[in-house]
User: Fold this.
Amino acid sequence: MKRMNIMDYLFLYALISTWWLLLLNIFLTISGYIYNLDVTKNGISVLKDVEKYPTISVLIPAHNEEKVIGRTLKAVLSLDYPTDKIEVIVINDNSTDNTKNVLEEIKYAYADRNIKVITTDSISGGKGKSNALNIGFNASSGEFIVVYDADNTPEKLSLRYLVSTIVGCEKYGAVIGKFRTRNRNRNWLTRFINIETLSFQWMAQAGRWKLLRICTIPGTNFIVRRSVMESLGGWDPNAIAEDTEISFRIYNMGYQIAFMPLAVTWEQEPETLKVWFKQRTRWANGNIYVLAKYFKEIFSAKNGSVLFDLYYFFSIYILFLSSVLISDVIFLLGLFTDLKITLSGNFIIIWILSYVLFVLEVSITLTLEKGESNYKNIFLVTIMYFTYCQLWIVVAIKGMIGYLRSKMLKRQAKWYKTERF
Assistant:
């Protein structure tokens, strides 16, 4: 029997890590598929259970959003919800463009609606999305708080779906909807983002909710109880991924975060790699901050939701990143050096099988969305692992470096804004 070398051990680690994540996502996909079918079957009937609609405060943080904020605000004002039960608060956070004038024009045009525009300067604002949301929350009065990003156009019934879900169960501290890619047909990058959003974000959310009754709040299109936000003291101003961070605190309060896939908003995604890298690096940086902040709870937390999500983020940012890096290094060393894997067995078949399962998993997700399961998207899925997914290696590394740099230099969180088109 041959003695295993370091290459063999690294290979086994990468293989086991890859298959662990692959199998986990397969279970989540199957569960999410079933959940989506169940919810879709009920459709609009879930709205009939609400006898009295509560008051809602919609918060829209905006920093230099002149290109998109007008469309977003008009879409929010067009939501199918009693107008006397909704106030809209836009936090014009230290903008240096024409955002303020756009907001004032719409406010004047909709003089009969409850619209508040809060404009901050470099002293009171410009300190990140969490700070802007806290400013808006302090000025709000609704029984429930709803958040939309400045580039969102929610569908007319989306707010009613969120409300009907959260008022139907006292265990729900928050309810999330889902966002779709409005500019998905712009170029190859936006098409990849669209597929990623549907499969690795929303199908995974649906699966986690179906299996474990947990979800992570996204940055937009969610509703949360006012009493919960008051107990939490608002958003963490040091968190770049404020949505993920507040999810953990809601878990720790004993609440559930539910998923209502019929509550849909459409948002604009990055159209260039430069903007995509900046946005995704911020996500990675923020999620690593959350993982580090709550890592000690892996050994002490009694809440299963906290434990699973900590392991989930650990798997994505540690196991996945390291396994892909190791796989790439082993491949290159095998091509250009004498360092080889000495393990016996047909591992090529195992790697091919993992790739086939990846393609099937993502393709199944596309069948749930009208117009997405087409030949063009299936082709993109087949090349996605070797192209778009590999870019996440760079993103994760940059996110880690950014987090460590901020930690060492004790930098305060700043507003990281995605460029609009």
